[in-house]
Amino acid sequence: MTMNNRESRSERGWTFVEMLVAIAISAVFLGAATLVMASISVNSKRLTSVVEVDIGSSTKLNFYGQAGNTLRVNSSPNYGKAARFEEFRDLILDDAYRSFGVYCLPRQLNNSIRPEFLRFEAGDAGSTSPLPRLDTPEAFRSFLADVEPTSAGIYDTAIRNVPDQDRPNTSIYMLSNASEEGYVRVHAIYEIDLVPSSSPYGTYASVRRYKNGSLTHYYDVFYPSGSGDAFHPVFVAFERSSRLAVNEGTAIDRFKVSDGNPFYLLWLPDPAINPYQLANWTASDPASSPRAAYEQMSGKTSMVIAIPMFPNL
Length: 313
Hints:
Blueprint: H1 3-11, H2 16-47, E1 49-54, H3 57-64, E2 70-75, H4 79-82, H5 84-97, E3 101-107, E4 117-119, H6 137-147, E5 169-177, E6 183-198, E7 201-211, E8 214-224, E9 235-240, H7 250-253, E10 256-258, E11 263-267, E12 304-308
């Protein structure tokens, strides 16, 4: 075959047979994709359900500002709700990096402390008030009790690194600078609540964001009851390694691991995984390791976030 013949053959269009083969291959791929999508759709409807959960009238009013005591919510696993985590992760990190301090506080009761500003007397012009050290969650808890006295009944236990087992819920206060002297702005508040339910039996999980006292975003899911471990802890606080200069015992010193900014590990409820129906965790890490405090969270959620305590540092 001459060079001219090769060029002539390469420039001509497809033959009828070649077109049929191409169409047949395309049909195979499109058919397979259709079957996959149909299978996902059918299984999604089969696996998830909507249940009516009784969380109590006071809790519903506190969470959502709504009357009544029941609400309809998707039961886990629900993969559509799981997609909302991407939005929440971006929101949490964006809010954190707009703040000078992030403080996680455990609690058992519902939270009602959602101010837009907090009084900061040391910021007054000419003030001689001592500047409070807001360098730990516990220091912020004490400060909050001073400026919002009713908070002492909500955040009623000291917090250093790991919340107590009987304080399963968490509030996250994110503070930023205020334009007015003598105040600090509460940039946003996140709340994670795990509410036991007997109608039906299980746990109602709710994750919410408040701005200026108003609810702006949330997602929720219902976990049918099971024999698995509790969803605990929701967060763990890690400190600067420089604090090892003071020996406070293994239970505390094991969390002094950060070479720079202290930080939190935060676990959010995952609508796609029911942690209460997983097998109980068998402890394996030594007590000297910080992982011993949270290793049981392995597999309970895919929603794990690392948040600096002081994002602007």
